[in-house]
Amino acid sequence: MLDTETEARSIVVKIGSALLANADLLTPRFGFIQRLLEDVTRLRSQGYNVILCSSGAVALGLRIVGETPESAGVSDKQAAAACGMPLLLNAYKQVGHEYGFEIAQVLLTLGDFEHHRRFLNTRNTVHRLLEAGVVPIVNENDSITTEEIRVGDNDRLAAKVAQMIGANDLIILTCVDGLYDRNPDEPGAVLVEEVEDVSVYMEATIGMSALGSGGMTTKLKAANMAQEAGCTTYIANGEADRPLSSVLNGERRCTKCLPHPNPLSGKDSWIANRLQMAGSLEISGKVAAALAGGKRSLMREDVVSMDGDFTRGDVLHLYDCDGVELARGLSDFTSEEIRVMISNPDTLADQLLGYKTKGEIIRSNNLVLLDNRHLLWAAPEAMTPGG
């Protein structure tokens, strides 16, 4: 248990839709919310800062727009989110007042995580709420996002929030006890109580709940992001009298994903843990070996081919000639500028672009080697050469 005189620990809690919404009636489960916020109050009294990443808005709004989880399309879900969010926040607010604390709504989109300035602004807002003793309730702004510009699931959103604020713990509450070595419905399935390398279990996690947007696969992806930021992740059943403190105190079964012993810095963690790929570069085997041997900048002549349309400051994924991802880094050029440079290798970059430049596509201090610490992204099927 935390000593209240020590520095406050920050905990991010992700709550799945199935815990918050009755699957048949699509109404709030006030009994669960009561148990959850009672435990939040208990942790706050012990000196913890608690941030909630709450699903449930879409599920709670489906009945209002006359749809079901099975029948709803994209526009139906966007409308349902707009209807369900007031219901969700009202439930949290009513119960929160019973325990004497205020809540605040923080709606985010993909750009709030992928663009560094917006990332920092969002972080400052969350920290200010915590300083004021307010419990932030974070959700994706589902009423305006589309598939191309959305985070995609609240598991990874919670992991990005944990990374953003430097949280010590991420608790993902779901409807099962944690990660199993196979489908938990199969005979002989065994709960995995401790995980160092989540990639070992990815094949065993295929599945999706009726109300939620992701299954155990997204939870392991979220755990991997949190691990690299030095954050411990717990995947646990939310149906308990003390759903949070019982996990932190080791009183019940769950899966604990251990943090990396040498976490990345805040900047490197932001670069390395992406939610969408802006663009990618293929580099030669010789350059790949040089990068692995020590930090160096990526130059125009190092690029064999590229994929994507991106702007300066976007994060690019670097692959070797076999399609193995090696690193991620901030581009100093737009995709069009890089195409021009690698299509004309015999012409100085200054002459091609019309301004003075060394042609460093990614500077060494903006390049993060993955070193088998991250879940890798598959290379785009068709990277285009400079010509």
Automatic annotation (TrEMBL):
**Keywords linked to the UniProt accession:** Amino-acid biosynthesis, ATP-binding, Cytoplasm, Kinase, Nucleotide-binding, Proline biosynthesis, Transferase
- Which GO terms of the molecular function aspect are on file? ATP binding; glutamate 5-kinase activity; RNA binding
* Any Pfam family matching the protein: PUA
Tell me its EC number(s), please.
2.7.2.11
Quote a single Gene Ontology cellular component term: cytosol
Which InterPro entries did the record assign?
Answer: AceGlu_kinase-like_sf (IPR036393), Asp/Glu/Uridylate_kinase (IPR001048), G5K_ProB (IPR041739), Glu/AcGlu_kinase (IPR001057), Glu_5kinase (IPR011529), Glu_5kinase/COase_Synthase (IPR005715), Glutamate_5-kinase_CS (IPR019797), PUA (IPR002478)
In terms of superkingdom, the source organism counts as Bacteria
This protein's pathway reads: Amino-acid biosynthesis; L-proline biosynthesis; L-glutamate 5-semialdehyde from L-glutamate: step 1/2
Would you kindly state one Gene Ontology biological process term found in this protein's UniProt entry? L-proline biosynthetic process
Which residues make up the binding site for ATP?
K14, S213, G214, G215, M216, T217, T218, K219
Q: Where in the cell is it found?
A: Cytoplasm
Which Gene3D superfamilies does UniProt cross-reference here? Acetylglutamate kinase-like, PUA domain
Q: Which family does it belong to?
A: Belongs to the glutamate 5-kinase family.
Function as written in the Swiss-Prot or TrEMBL entry: Catalyzes the transfer of a phosphate group to glutamate to form L-glutamate 5-phosphate.
Q: Which HAMAP family match?
A: ProB
Put simply, this protein is called Glutamate 5-kinase
Organism taxonomic ancestry: Bacteria, Pseudomonadati, Pseudomonadota, Alphaproteobacteria, Sphingomonadales
